[in-house]
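Appendix C reproduces, verbatim, an entry submitted by the partner laboratory led by Prof. M.T., so that reviewers can inspect both the input and the predicted structure.
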Amino acid sequence: MKGTGHFGPELFEFLNDLRRNNRREWFLANKSRYEAEVRDPMLRFIGDFTAPLRKISRHFVADPRPSGGSLFRIHRDTRFSRDKSPYKTNVAAHFRHEAAADAHAPGFYLHLEPKQVFLAAGFWHPDAEALAQVRQAIVAKPALWKRAISGQAFRARCSLSGDALVRPPKGYDPEHPLIDDVKRKDFVAVTRFTEKHACARDFLDQCAQAYRVQSPLVAFVTSALGLPW
């Protein structure tokens, strides 16, 4: 049965089938199904999310182009992986800052996968210079950082995720009250949903609400880089 919003159960059924048949021959034989049940619904979501995203910040982009926009490619980069499966078993979109060149930039992320539906927002895998800028901002503006990650709605709906150093980075006081945050290598808030949520009529509105809760974190890291919010 079709969902009543942008996505339906058939999206997750296709991704489950792809997991079991992750071969180029199978995918090419089912490419029209991928486009109709997975790619095109996500592109419609991206296009329809343009207006809600602008209400959060006019400097982040929802680009519904099939290639080169907010949609992540279904093809995996297998060059440095032992797993040579050619396709991802999820569909995802990244609404990144207008000044960004790739996914390693402040942004809002949507991930749909069987048994794993979530939104993430913030800064994932920044380069060394950007990472240093965010750490310096946390130390320079501790109250603003704490407000970004400690609001009642944030604590109720989000969890901080990502990699972190075992030891404090060089030049930072190990006894600093925010040293655990300074040790982070990613600054990402995650909000989890279910497949049922993703297939609901109001999922786009739910995403917009969750991103608004996460937006103070995105605003903090964006401003730390000297980019407009």
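The mean pLDDT is 95. Additional entries are available on request from the coordinating office.
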